[in-house]
Specification:
The protein has five helices and five strands; from the N terminus they run E-H-H-H-H-E-E-H-E-E. The chain has helices at 12-18, 20-27, 30-33, 41-60, 90-96; strands at residues 2-11, 74-78, 84-88, 102-110, 114-123. A hairpin with a 3-residue loop joins strand 4 and strand 5. Helix 1 (12-18) crosses helix 4 and helix 2 runs parallel beside helix 4 (41-60). Its cofactor is Mg(2+).
């Protein structure tokens, strides 16, 4: 059963202007920070993709980022083939009235100017 869909489009230049280190500290979990690429455009592109993915997941949850679910409660990791996967923290799932049976389907893409993400939440 589909619980929700969400999408987000993020300008990479806007992410660069925000201050990459400050933004990374605000939105990334400790595990995600360990994957943050070194400086340059790739770092901004990667961070914009993570920002868009987390926003898309929160929109699919029907709440957006806020008191019910925060940026660091949505963990985005890539598998060995590079496919992004999202996991929602159990405490946030509980606040949403859901459990671990909720699966997140996620797609992230980039251009030189934008990062976009699309998320579908499904109860298995």
């Amino acid at each position: 059963m589909i619980l929700g869909i969400g999408t987000d489009l993020t300008e990479i230049a806007r992410i660069q202007k925000t201050g990459l280190e400050r933004l990374a500290g605000r939105i990334l979990s400790r595990e995600e920070r360990s994957e943050l690429p070194e400086g340059g455009f790739r770092r901004a592109e990667w961070l914009a993709g993570r920002f868009a993915a987390k926003e898309a997941v929160a929109k699919a949850a029907g709440t957006g980022i806020g008191s019910v679910i925060g940026f660091r409660e949505i963990m985005i990791r890539n598998d060995e083939k590079g496919k992004p996967h999202a996991r929602i923290d159990p405490a946030a799932l509980e606040r949403l009235g859901w459990d671990e049976s909720v699966m997140v389907h996620l797609s992230v893409t980039h251009t030189r100017e934008y990062a976009a993400a699309f998320a579908v939440l499904e109860r298995r």
